[in-house]
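From the shared-data thread, chain only:
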Amino acid sequence: MFDIQIKRIHEYKRQTLNLLHVIVRYNEILQNPDADWVPRVVFFSGKAAPGYVVAKGIIEIINEVTQVINNDARVKNKLKVVFIPNYSVSIAEMMIPAADLSEQISLAGYEASGTSNMKFILNGAIIIGTLDGANIEIKECVGDENIFIFGHTAEEVIEIRKHYDLNKYWQDQRIHKALTDISSGKFSPNEPNRFAPFLMGNFQDYYQNFADFDSYYNTQKKVDALYRDPMKWAKCAIMNIACAGMFSSDRSIQEYAEKIWNIEPINA
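Structure, as tokens:
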């Protein structure tokens, strides 16, 4: 499975949530290598503002995790991670048609809109995402059974923030182990304390990676289950392609003409 997250590198886009799941999956494969794992290649790509220190830290840690996982023979043919640098339209033209799974996992309430998810479904990818932005409209078009929605709603995010308890999520052994691996230098053996500042800052968890992790993890299990049935997966992908017409510029401009501009077509 080609699992792709193409997003501007940003805390609210939650590449960190995706990476946390990658590390957890890696640890689980090591614990149970003979299980029926769906092979995955997880792709990250996107731009980061030059002065955005945290975003550059996210890129750095993705690349370090990539080096460890991809060079570990114990997970050969089960899990690979790739960061594609210098993201551009030309790269998108190759990556988007290749995707099986499209990661649209921004924290609910922060993704005002979105067009990349539309491009992905047009090319047959299935979305895993929060109930936010264009994911909401896509869900209405393709149906609940043809999209993987997880996580808290925008309203729930606001309420959770009022009494967010990091210690509660630290008790989750999956999260605890992944963060311990990062902080102990497992992914930076020559510089064990390298990512300590990153953890201290990013994983105060303003964007609720931990709060959504269990839902994300369980939804990824559903992704695996569907992918094991090629006919059902193909049907789901075809439904996404078929419903993508809703997001065409023709429909959008027609709706603007009727509801906003209040203009009518004329006969030439």
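The mean pLDDT is 91.
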